[in-house]
Amino acid sequence: MIRCLAFSDRGMELARRIAGALGGSAFRSGDPLRGAEWTKKYFSRSEALIFVGSCGIAVRMTAPLLRSKAEDPAVVVIDERGRFAIPVLSGHLGGANDLARRIAGLTGGTAVLTTATDVTGTFAVDSWARIHNASVLNTRRILPFSRKLLSGASAVLASRFPFQGTAPAGIRFTGMDSEDGNEDPDSVPDAVLDYGFLPGFPPAGGNVRGAEPLLLVPRVLTLGIGCRRGVSAEQIEEQYRKFLEHTGFREEAFRLAASIDLKQGERGLLTFCQRHHLKACFYSPDRLRQVTGVRSSSDFVKEVTGVDNVCERAAVLAASSGAGPGELIAEKFPGNGVTLAAAAMHYAPDWRDHE
């Protein structure tokens, strides 16, 4: 949710206009909450906060609430006449720079960008990651990556996925299966784009060949879950940890959890999904039977549920979209009254909108 705060009648008119165009809501300081109280209430509950007023007010109100660039919302300030839109917090990861551009486009004003990569037209990896639905696990590595490009040096990106389009200046590739774009197969990567642990590069703490790379994890995996009746969230959690260790997948890569509709009332399953911020999807036996490409089958499961495999079929179905069918990448992993499987959504990263 985008929320706007104004401090005057003129500012409130502009706040309503911006909120209406962006699908947000507008508030007036003091009606009923004063500005600092309003900011404290909505800071962690908003995608973005827009202050119609002075930068000083926004800085004073948000400063006590700051946590990290990975958690803070976008904060943009715009003057009451709509002449200047200034991103003051979370310019790239939070999208404040892009939001400032949108606001300036609405008001006919100017977006005032001060981040070095924007000023110089250099590739901003954190902004690119946000646009392409990839989490940045170690944000402290953003600065060394960007510093290389800003100095005119090259930065090496290792990726599980082939890229579309032409890479920005200074970006080279390594660690790709495809020969296309595999410009530097022997270089130590400065960044890794993968939903698991790319061979030769440990999860954290660096490696024998160099410092820890910037870790970019696209949220493209779905978790298929089959379970006995009455299973607890703790049982699923224990099996999930074993599954992650077995597969090498990163927890941050999972976007959805899926199962058969017979399980949509299972409290343990629902609690597990809530804890991990996974949207839960449930499918009928008829829809699950139509899924192809599964590798496991159980007569017992078929007798109970009407389909021979729940976790694999559910994972693949949840990962399917108009861009293509889901791909089963980890077959049934049973234990503890739970079966888990994983599928990958279609993911085709490219270099658009990297300015």
TrEMBL record:
InterPro entries: CbiG_hydrolase, CbiG_N, CobE/GbiG_C, CobE/GbiG_C_sf, GbiG_N_sf. GO terms for molecular function: lyase activity. The keyword Lyase applies. Residues 38-118 form the Cobalamin synthesis G N-terminal domain. Residues 221-343 form the CobE/GbiG C-terminal domain. One of its GO terms (biological process) is cobalamin biosynthetic process. Keywords: Lyase. PANTHER family: COBALT-PRECORRIN-5A HYDROLASE. This is Cobalt-precorrin 5A acetaldehyde-lyase. The lineage of its organism: Bacteria, Bacillati, Bacillota, Clostridia, Eubacteriales.
